[in-house]
């Protein structure tokens, strides 16, 4: 059963205030991932490491000069079908993880950050890791 929407509205807004768009259906996930260029797909969550670490880190990293063409999110436990579609179609072979982040370039997965890599770090450290990924993959010619 999905989380009650009134409960998670502020958690959604933690990302949308940075220009992150919501992909709340499987179709929206497919369309977003297929966007030409680079796409950051974020699997949002109600957990503490999402609130205190992942979402603030995303906000910090999206201020960087090199950043994805699109930043989008699904909410685990709320956008159930969209999250399942992201994991089953686009993150094949990668264990489910929330929160998590994945970068796609022209529809192909090129980088991912899992929950276990988020839990042990603080937001500025996670932002630095994201910025390094942006510098590597979100330029016209990846390094």
Q: How is this structure best summarized?
A:
The chain is α/β, with parallel strands linked by helices and 143 residues long. It contains six helices and five strands.
Q: Which characteristics define this entry?
A:
single chain; 143 residues; alpha/beta; 5-stranded mixed β-sheet; 6 helices; 45% helix; 19% strand; globular
Structure commentary:
45% of the residues lie in helices and 19% in strands. With 143 residues, it is of the alpha/beta class. It is globular, with a radius of gyration of 14 Å.
Which SSEs are present, and which pair or pack?
Layout: H1 5-16, E1 21-22, H2 26-33, E2 38-44, H3 48-61, E3 70-75, H4 80-90, E4 100-105, E5 108-113, H5 115-119, H6 123-137
Parallel strand pairs: 1-3, 2-3
Antiparallel strand pairs: 2-4, 4-5
Helix pairs in contact: 2-4, 3-6
Structural class: alpha/beta
- Radius of gyration of CA atoms, rounded to a whole number: 14 Å
Profile the largest sheet.
5 strands, mixed
- Distance between the amino and carboxyl termini: 43 Å
Output the helix-strand order.
HEHEHEHEEHH
Annotation field: number of helices: 6
Strands, total number:
5
In one word, what is the shape?
globular
The strand line-up of the biggest sheet is 1-3-2-4-5
Helix content: 40-55%
Average pLDDT figure: 95
Share of β-strand residues: 15-25%
Low-confidence stretches: none
């Amino acid at each position: 059963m999905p989380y009650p929407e009134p409960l998670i509205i502020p958690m959604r807004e933690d990302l949308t205030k940075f220009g992150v768009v919501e992909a709340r259906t499987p179709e929206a996930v497919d369309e977003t991932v297929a966007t030409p260029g680079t796409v950051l797909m974020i699997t949002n969550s109600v957990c503490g490491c999402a609130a205190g670490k992942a979402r603030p880190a995303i906000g910090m990293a999206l201020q960087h000069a090199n950043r994805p063409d699109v930043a989008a999110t699904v909410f685990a436990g709320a956008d159930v079908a969209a999250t399942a579609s992201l994991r089953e179609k686009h993150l094949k072979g990668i264990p489910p993880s929330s929160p998590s982040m994945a970068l796609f370039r022209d529809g192909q997965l090129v980088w991912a950050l899992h929950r276990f890599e988020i839990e042990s770090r603080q937001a500025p450290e996670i932002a630095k890791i994201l910025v390094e990924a942006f510098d590597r993959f979100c330029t016209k010619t990846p390094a």
